[in-house]
Amino acid sequence: MVREGSYTGTTSGVCVGYVQANLAILPQKYAEDFLKYAQRNPKPCPILECTKPGDPTTHIVAKNANIATDLPGYRVYRNGVAADTTSDISKYWRDDLVGFLIGCSYSFEYALMEAGLEIRCITDKNFGWAYETNIPCAPSKYFSGPVIASMRPFPADKIDLVYEITSKLPHAHGTPIYHGDPSKIGVSLDKPYCGDLPRIEPGEVPVFWGCGVTPQRAIEFAAPDLAITHDAGHMFITDVRESDLETHLAKFWL
Amino acid sequence: MVREGSYTGTTSGVCVGYVQANLAILPQKYAEDFLKYAQRNPKPCPILECTKPGDPTTHIVAKNANIATDLPGYRVYRNGVAADTTSDISKYWRDDLVGFLIGCSYSFEYALMEAGLEIRCITDKNFGWAYETNIPCAPSKYFSGPVIASMRPFPADKIDLVYEITSKLPHAHGTPIYHGDPSKIGVSLDKPYCGDLPRIEPGEVPVFWGCGVTPQRAIEFAAPDLAITHDAGHMFITDVRESDLETHLAKFWL
């Protein structure tokens, strides 16, 4: 449906139980350095798959998907500035482009829900709350910038369970980077990086995860002539079930 | 020599090539929560071994070493406040104490030197430079506080090599958490957490690693009735060679 253009909405709560992925497409000149940046910052940027230069086909997270057509929304950057949003980037495709599919926190929401936890952004039909923190990424030659974090509130007595479940999914951002007083990571909850204001009930604690939006900020800093990412909340939906993610990836990497 | 009390100095540059470890000893009541805290913050707090309650004997990092006598310097905390420094904690030992041996950045210095890099704190006969950052640890029930980071300067064109080498030693703090402008992680180089002022030459970049002093700050926050750590720079020297660390640990954990 996405490839045919009949679905262009956000993917929050869509194909529940299947791993979703953030996307970053960069000219080959920047690709090796971006990989370095991602490896230095595995919590916000867990790499699931890199495509071959010029070839938009995926082989690991989905067989023969096309990253140029199979996301419901893209953001196109020129020299680090968002210049277009579109649902098909075929016209921007070049022979030197390399795609990076990056783990997404949507991929642990199902696991948390199966344990009886409420995912507030799904309850409230929001595509998620993200904040710019004051924690900097470990930089590479071209890429740097702050860690962007997604936030979900949970009751204080469920925090341990949240860490336990997400620790088994390092390629979906793994455990939180922090929970508790948001000001300690430079966050005001009423100033989201994107999205609406969150609803937090009494007795709940805000829990923060490294977010796949982080490389978008890094692309603004690196300012390559062309870069393409997913649009906020418009992820690549893989063929991999959440519960199979780590074993599936290990098959390709061993 | 340490056990007999004939060596009570710092262990920087001592037994070069052998893994050294930070120490945290806590009452059993706090032990499970401390392990949780450490697992949530693996870069500053990579756990190498936990001892059994009441038994100071090590089995993994050294056969039959005694954590109550085999460090050249200890710091004793009462209710979160440093109350004593000593080279033998036998008189403080209790049946409910659990010891945690935590990876130490001294353990990657040899690997970096073998690659031809200068370790400034060794050149300058300093036991190391550490700074309190504005990055908070992911808290547990009792333990929280900022990440303390050790700093070593390296020439800008050697940074990639530094990441590459340290990526192979995750239990010695692994890759840096950051390099570059210290103010971005809330650090002024002229205000060390402990140690003297560092010497940084033109063209060098400060590189920061999660540091095993971090749990000492967390112990100040948790304020258990008794806690014992290594004294700054006075580490536990293990029987494990740096190059064997990861494979050695894997033998016990598989």
Can you tag this structure with a few keywords?
homodimer; 254 residues; alpha+beta; PSTPO5379-like; PSTPO5379-like fold; 2 domains; seven-stranded antiparallel sheet; four-stranded antiparallel sheet
| Percent helix of chain A | 10-25%
- Which chains have the largest interface? A-B, 22 and 22 residues
What is the name of the CATH class of the largest domain in chain A?
Alpha Beta
CA-based gyration radius of chain A: 17 Å
**Span from first to last CA of chain A?**
33 Å
Report the CATH superfamily of the largest domain in chain A.
PSTPO5379-like
Q: Give the total of domains of chain A.
A: 2
Low-confidence stretches of chain A: none
Helix and strand run of chain A: EHEEEEHHEEHEEHEEH
Description:
With 254 residues, chain A is of the alpha+beta class. Chain A has two domains: 120 residues, PSTPO5379-like (3-Layer(aba) Sandwich); 103 residues, 2-Layer Sandwich (PSTPO5379-like fold). Chain A contains six helices and eleven strands. In chain A, the strands form two sheets. In chain A, strands 1, 2, 3, 4, 5, 10 and 11 form a seven-stranded antiparallel beta sheet that branches. Chain A has a four-stranded antiparallel beta sheet with strand order 6-7-9-8, covered by helices on one side. The mean pLDDT of chain A is 94. Chains A and B meet through helix 1, strand 6 and strand 8 of A and helix 1, strand 6 and strand 8 of B.
In a nutshell, what does this entry contain?
Chain A is α+β, with helices and mostly antiparallel strands and 254 residues long. The first copy, chain A, has 6 helices and 11 strands.
